[in-house]
Amino acid sequence: MVSLTICNRWAILLDRGVIYWVTIMKPSVDDKVQLRNRKRIWGLNPNVFFLGMVSLLNDISSEMIFTLVPLFLSHVLKVPTTIVGLIGGLSESTDAIFRIFSGWLSDRVGKRKFLAVLGYSISTVAKPFMYLAATWGAVLGVRFSDRVGKGMRTSSRDALIADSVSAKERGRGFGLHRAMDTSGAVLGLGIAAIIIYLVQGGELALSWGTYRWLVLVGVIPAVLAVLVLLIFVRERGRKPSPVASSHQGSAWNRLTSGFDTRFKVFLAIMAIFTLGNSSDFFVILRAWNLDVSVIYVAVMLVVFNVTYAITSLPAGILSDKLGRRRIITLGWFIYVLVYLGFALATEVWQVWLLFAGYGIYYGIAEGVARAFVADLVPEEKRGTAYGLYHGVVGLTLLPSSLIAGWLWQTVSPATPFYFGAGLAFMAMLGMMALIRE
Questions:
Q1: Does position 271 have pLDDT exceeding 50, yes or no?
Q2: Which domain holds residue 23?
């Protein structure tokens, strides 16, 4: 039998010399549901798995190239901690601005995948230039470009995940994504540790030659991430969101229109928390400040990401059952304890435990907070909502990192962690008192 489809409703069949003109029936809703179920991976829409794979590959690359940037700046380029804080803060703030724009744009045009592909591609093109970076200005330029890409993709990607799962699967979906994302970080840091050991052994400071090897190898998985996104992720058709009326006031009012008070209060609480949650550059510098060699810093980051990956999925599933607010509050409480620990630590073994605890905080709070955003907003505003959420977090990281750098240099390396723990405790109280599910 030979068949030739000539449109999506008709086909010609040729069987033993007889020609048949056949009507193709559209699948029923039940058929579509069964088809989706047959294609589910680990009990979820395939998009969740493949977006997780994209993040896994990209994180292998980013952890190899960018996680040790504070040590590259301190050891190789000899810049002060204020500059390290400036680079970390400006990078995150750039990311934040573009997350706001890309989230709004994905709602406006109804196309999320295009922005995700564009963002991952920009970051992939920027990364090889770290091989040539010889001044802190060059590092800032590459980091800026990478964060433009991250800002373009993150809100759209998170909205794609939210669009791909039902409300009762949301915590699980984001938990799986965060677990895969963090597994990539584990692999990336593991590969980085091997390269560091082979090139420079157990030396305390990071060398320029070692860092260049990290960049060369790290570019490969970034390219693979873009290919997986292009080939395997599917976006269902969506109607573009309506344009807000120009009579609704300022640009900020138009951007935040359609959101209820709970979401806006949640953003305010996140800003308070993030003001004390400076760039993770300072956690890495704190380990080095306590005489941890670069190879052990890399392994500690592996421990951090392992605990992050292990806790992400169970925390997401638990939030589906117990509610997001309680799980986020628990994560922030662990953060308070960990930051106090970093302030008080005097021994290397304590730093090992603190990195593991820091991963537990991330695993509990990160994915659940993103699922909570989807709970608080209507579907057609999710892209904008994720843009605002990531934007508030990212923009607050600039003053947060500048404050941390100033406190580190003018008071003591422990002071930024006391400051962060205090603000996190205030945010935790605000979450319990002001947010209702």
A1: yes
A2: 1-39
